[in-house]
C-alpha cells in the first residue's frame, strides 16, 4: 500500500495552469501554460511512465473581491488576490489526491497560492516543508521595500510570512514557511532594501558567484542534505529566468550570467535522484518574447530531467528514492 505522506507517493502527476500575468512588468506570461503543453510536457511525462492528469487552466471569473484595503505599493493587488485565493484552494485539493502537482505559470505571483497550499498540505501530515527558489531574482520585496510595486517580486517574502500583504488570502488559511526552509538559488539581481531584509532574516542565498566558485552539484547537494536531515519535502519553484538568456530568451526579466543548459540539467537530475521533490512551479515563461518555442522546449526538457529522463541508465544512489518508486 502506498504511503501518501511521502513525496514519492505514486507515479501520478497533476498539471494545473494559472494564466496570470499582471504581477509582472511585461504582459504575456498568461500564454505560458499553453506553451508548455504545446511543447509536449504531458507527453514527455507520460513517456516516463507517469499517469498524468491535466486539470486545465484555473479561472477566477467566479471569485469575488474582498473588501480589505490594498497596500499603497502593490500593482494589480485585487486581481492577484483573487488568483492567490483560487490557486491556494485548488492546489490544496489537488495535493490531497496523492499526485505530484506541477503548476504551470503565469508569473511568479502564482507561488503565493501554490506554495501556500503545499505548505498547508505537508504541515497537516507532520512533514517539514522546504522551498528551492530557482530564480535570477530574490523576490523578497514587500510593499514597503519594493521599487517597482510589481507583485511577482514579493512572492518569496509573502510565503515567509513578511507583513504587507496580510489580507491576500482573506479568511483562507495562510501557512508560512520558515525562512530557514527557503533556498534562493542562482540569484543575480537583488534590490538594496530587499537585500537588507534578507540579511535580517538570514535567508540562504546561492548566488552566481558561489555557483561559479563551488559548482551547482556541491550547492544543490547541500540543499538536498538539509531537507533529508529533517525528513522533509521539497517544493521546486522554477523561474525560467534562472537560466541564462542565451538559453531561455522567452522571459520578460532577463538578467545576464544565468545557469547554463548543462548546469540546469544537472540540478534537475540531482533533485530527481534525491526523491524529495513533492511539487513544482514553472513560472515567468513569456511565449510572446520567445524564439519559436525555444524556451518552452527547454523548460519541458528540464522537467523531464527532474522526473527521471536520462540518456543512459544509472543506478539510483542507495540513500535516494526516485519519484514514484
Automatic annotation (TrEMBL):
<feature type="binding site">
    <location>
        <position position="241"/>
    </location>
    <ligand>
        <name>Mn(2+)</name>
    </ligand>
</feature>
<dbReference type="GO" id="GO:0005737">
    <property type="term" value="C:cytoplasm"/>
</dbReference>
<dbReference type="GO" id="GO:0000050">
    <property type="term" value="P:urea cycle"/>
</dbReference>
<dbReference type="Pfam" id="PF00491">
    <property type="entry name" value="Arginase"/>
</dbReference>
<protein>
    <recommendedName>
        <fullName>Arginase</fullName>
        <ecNumber>3.5.3.1</ecNumber>
    </recommendedName>
</protein>
<dbReference type="InterPro" id="IPR020855">
    <property type="entry name" value="Ureohydrolase_Mn_BS"/>
</dbReference>
<comment type="similarity">
    <text>Belongs to the arginase family.</text>
</comment>
<keyword id="KW-0479">Metal-binding</keyword>
<comment type="pathway">
    <text>Nitrogen metabolism; urea cycle; L-ornithine and urea from L-arginine: step 1/1.</text>
</comment>
<feature type="binding site">
    <location>
        <position position="139"/>
    </location>
    <ligand>
        <name>Mn(2+)</name>
    </ligand>
</feature>
<keyword id="KW-0378">Hydrolase</keyword>
<dbReference type="InterPro" id="IPR014033">
    <property type="entry name" value="Arginase"/>
</dbReference>
<keyword id="KW-0056">Arginine metabolism</keyword>
<feature type="binding site">
    <location>
        <position position="137"/>
    </location>
    <ligand>
        <name>Mn(2+)</name>
    </ligand>
</feature>
<dbReference type="InterPro" id="IPR006035">
    <property type="entry name" value="Ureohydrolase"/>
</dbReference>
<feature type="binding site">
    <location>
        <position position="135"/>
    </location>
    <ligand>
        <name>Mn(2+)</name>
    </ligand>
</feature>
<dbReference type="GO" id="GO:0004053">
    <property type="term" value="F:arginase activity"/>
</dbReference>
<feature type="binding site">
    <location>
        <position position="108"/>
    </location>
    <ligand>
        <name>Mn(2+)</name>
    </ligand>
</feature>
<feature type="binding site">
    <location>
        <position position="239"/>
    </location>
    <ligand>
        <name>Mn(2+)</name>
    </ligand>
</feature>
<dbReference type="GO" id="GO:0030145">
    <property type="term" value="F:manganese ion binding"/>
</dbReference>
<dbReference type="InterPro" id="IPR023696">
    <property type="entry name" value="Ureohydrolase_dom_sf"/>
</dbReference>
<dbReference type="GO" id="GO:0006525">
    <property type="term" value="P:arginine metabolic process"/>
</dbReference>
<keyword id="KW-0464">Manganese</keyword>
Amino acid at each position: 500500500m502506498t504511503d501518501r505522506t511521502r513525496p514519492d507517493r505514486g507515479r501520478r502527476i497533476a498539471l494545473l495552469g494559472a494564466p496570470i500575468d499582471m504581477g509582472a512588468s511585461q504582459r504575456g506570461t498568461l500564454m505560458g501554460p499553453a506553451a508548455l503543453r504545446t511543447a509536449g510536457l504531458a507527453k514527455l511525462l507520460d513517456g516516463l511512465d507517469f499517469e498524468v492528469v491535466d486539470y486545465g487552466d484555473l479561472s477566477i471569473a467566479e471569485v469575488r473581491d474582498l473588501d480589505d484595503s490594498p497596500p499603497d505599493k502593490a500593482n494589480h493587488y485585487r486581481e492577484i488576490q483573487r488568483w492567490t485565493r483560487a490557486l491556494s484552494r485548488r492546489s490544496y485539493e489537488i495535493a490531497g489526491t496523492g499526485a505530484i502537482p506541477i503548476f504551470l505559470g503565469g508569473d511568479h505571483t502564482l507561488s503565493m497560492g501554490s506554495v501556500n497550499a503545499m505548505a498547508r498540505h505537508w504541515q497537516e501530515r507532520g512533514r517539514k516543508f522546504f522551498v528551492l527558489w530557482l530564480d535570477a531574482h530574490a523576490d523578497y520585496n514587500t510593499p514597503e521595500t519594493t521599487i517597482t510595486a510589481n507583485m511577482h517580486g514579493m512572492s518569496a517574502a509573502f510565503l515567509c510570512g513578511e507583513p504587507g500583504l496580510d489580507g491576500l488570502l482573506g479568511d483562507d488559511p495562510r501557512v508560512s514557511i520558515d525562512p530557514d526552509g527557503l533556498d534562493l538559488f542562482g540569484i543575480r539581481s537583488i534590490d538594496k532594501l530587499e537585500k537588507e531584509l534578507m540579511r535580517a532574516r538570514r535567508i540562504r542565498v546561492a548566488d552566481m558567484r558561489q555557483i561559479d566558485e563551488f559548482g551547482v552539484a556541491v550547492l544543490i547537494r547541500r540543499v538536498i542534505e538539509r531537507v533529508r536531515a529533517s525528513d522533509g519535502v521539497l517544493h521546486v519553484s522554477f523561474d525560467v529566468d534562472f537560466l541564462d538568456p542565451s538559453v531561455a530568451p522567452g522571459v520578460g526579466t532577463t538578467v545576464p550570467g544565468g545557469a547554463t543548459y548543462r548546469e540546469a540539467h544537472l540540478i534537475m537530475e540531482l533533485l530527481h535522484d534525491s526523491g524529495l521533490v513533492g511539487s513544482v512551479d514553472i513560472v515567468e515563461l513569456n511565449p510572446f518574447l520567445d524564439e519559436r518555442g525555444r524556451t518552452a522546449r527547454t523548460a519541458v526538457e528540464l522537467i523531464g530531467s527532474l522526473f527521471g529522463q536520462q540518456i543512459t541508465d544509472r543506478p539510483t544512489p542507495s540513500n535516494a528514492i526516485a519519484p514514484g518508486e
